[in-house]
Amino acid sequence: MSENQIKNIEAEFDARIARDEKIEPKDWMPEKYRQTHIRQISQHAHSEIVGMLPEGNWITRAPSLRRKVALLAKVQDEAGHGLYLYSACETLGISRDELYEQLHTGKAKYSSIFNYPTITWADIGAIGWLVDGAAIINQVPLCNTSYGPYARAMIRVCKEESFHQRQGYEIMMTLAEGTKEQKTMAQDALNRWWWPSLMMFGPTDAESVHTAQSMKWKLKRKTNDELRQQFVDQTVPQAELIGLTVPDPDLKWNDERQSYDFGAIDWDEFWQVVKGHGPMNKQRINARVSAWENGEWVRDAAMAYAKKQEESRTKQAM
Amino acid sequence: MSKNWPLWEVFVRSKNGLEHRHFGSLHAADAEMALENARDVYTRRNEGVSIWVVESKHIRASNPENNGELFEPAQDKVYRHPTFYNIPDEIKHM
Ligand SMILES: [Fe+2]
Ligand SMILES: [Fe+2]
Ligand SMILES: [Fe+2]
Description:
By secondary structure, chain A is mainly α. Chain A has helices at 3-18, 31-50, 52-56, 65-90, 96-104, 122-139, 148-176, 180-199, 211-216, 224-241, 267-277, 281-294, 296-317, and strands spanning 252-254, 259-261.
């Protein structure tokens, strides 16, 4: 193909997306589109899977059976989200094994928020309320993204997320209404999770490199800063309602903008954690790698069993 | 033989009276495990009453590059649609 011909099909491809047509796995797509999608979808899948670890930490210590079944169901949902997304990613021609390999070797990233520890039960409340809350804001626009399998996976994910956020908020509310110690625990969790949650929307628009391309391919519909603002505006009244204080002395309602002004984010911390120096980066990856390695004999045994069954079926048929 | 679990496509009937619809895919060692995993991955909230699984390698898909020859011939066959036929206005239901 000549360079001009390629330009023409690329223009036609972009026009299809602009017309809100979906791109499906066997359709022609620019290599950059494929790579960008593999990167984003796998990063998202890894986040769902690694995201189970901080919460899994509290399943056996949940304070009641009600809390325990809810947390189990939530963590199981996150496993499901990871699986929907890995499947969507595989339709782009990368294998599950390669995807795991990229996670385990640190080549692929996952959301930095999961590199913070869950040190009290209130952290489970804060994660559901803030982290899932931020994830929902990031994810809802992706239900209309241009790549069909990704959009379909996101529709399922979004349907399941709202219970996650509500169960977290309920935990925070209950603690905030409880004893003095319980309320302190809730406030402490909010203090630790607030800023990392704001960082979940990514670098400021001025620093963000992919935005224009991502907008065109509908991997993004709003900018990082717009989404972050939406999160702040939505969450501050929720904190006030249960008597908790957002840990930001600069937070102030701006009547003119009909939005909250908020303080500066510590981007050094963000980049430190992205680069692997967060409090839990090592533990998270070690947990994934050892689960994968220790499970190897089970996976092999299952394949050996399947093969034996297959052979005995063919013998019987003969 | 690869030790990696093969890929399966999952089809779910949401309720009786509806067709099985493609829900997604998953990895499993055999059909039995594929069904069990499909139950856990795709029907955690009563989304289904029946599941089909088929190993992805058995699916033959048409190539979008041939969409012209495959699907365009149907586009100019307007006479396959009821509106192509003229009947008197007095006739209300036909
Ligand atoms: Fe998510
Ligand atoms: Fe999720
Ligand atoms: Fe979630």
